[in-house]
Amino acid sequence: MEGCVSYNRKSFELLDFLPSDMDAGLKSTINQYWHQRIAREILIALSSAEEIPMSQLRDQIGHSASTLHENIKRLQEVGLIEAEMSFKGNKQLLLRPRVIFVSDNPKVAAAFQKFFQGLFIDTNATKIVLAFLNENPDKFFTSAEISSRTNMPKTQVEIALSNLESPITRAYSTFYRSAPFEKQISYRIRK
């Protein structure tokens, strides 16, 4: 994985690049292809899974096979995705993202949600995050990965997770006396 890019779900404006010291050439490539509608649809769809067969991608975003092949070839050439032919069962082209794209709330909405964090809990968001973690009990995920796989804004995922860790939430809840997940934080030196 080369990195993570957050974007505004409504305007498709790119908001942030992680790692923050991402190569300038890669950022430029991302910007170039992000502004092409079909390429953007492919990048968003691939971010929702570790791997997607070409046939599933075609069903998901609804373009012709030739249009998708042309765009996939270009995205692969510039290093934004990986494609591999699989011969297990039926012959199929498997696609994987090298950069994941996650939606994020606009700054004002995120600030508002963080202000009320722990007091008002979005139970639907919490259920979605916990259901995703329950489906994958043996793996650790970053909030960006959870966001991309659940199609929830990254800040909403972060707030749902922190609400479950919040002493305020745990004090009011008889069900969550402790956080229902194991947390692992990783750090790396900047180059």
Describe this structure as you would to a colleague.
It is built from nine helices and six strands. It has helices at 24-34, 37-47, 54-61, 65-77, 107-115, 123-135, 143-150, 154-165, 167-172; strands at 3-8, 14-18, 52-53, 81-86, 92-97, 99-104. The protein has two domains: 3-100, Winged helix-like DNA-binding domain superfamily/Winged helix DNA-binding domain (Arc Repressor Mutant, subunit A, Orthogonal Bundle); 105-172, no CATH class. A hairpin with a 5-residue loop joins strand 1 (3-8) and strand 2 (14-18). Strands 2-1-6 form a three-stranded mixed sheet, sandwiched between helices. Helices cover 48% and strands 16% of the residues. The two termini are 17 Å apart. Mean pLDDT is 80; it is low at 115-119. With 191 residues, it is α+β, with helices and mostly antiparallel strands.
Secondary structure blueprint with pairings:
Layout: E1 3-8, E2 14-18, H1 24-34, H2 37-47, E3 52-53, H3 54-61, H4 65-77, E4 81-86, E5 92-97, E6 99-104, H5 107-115, H6 123-135, H7 143-150, H8 154-165, H9 167-172
Helix pairs in contact: 6-8, 7-8
Radius of gyration: 18 Å
Summarize model confidence as the mean pLDDT: 80
Biggest sheet character? 3 strands, mixed
Number of strands: 6
Report the CATH superfamily of the largest domain.
Answer: Winged helix-like DNA-binding domain superfamily/Winged helix DNA-binding domain
Distance between the amino and carboxyl termini? 17 Å
Helix content: 40-55%
Strands in their spatial order, largest beta sheet: 2-1-6
Shape: globular
Provide the structure class: alpha+beta
Number of domains: 2
Please count the helical segments: 9
CATH class of the largest domain: Mainly Alpha
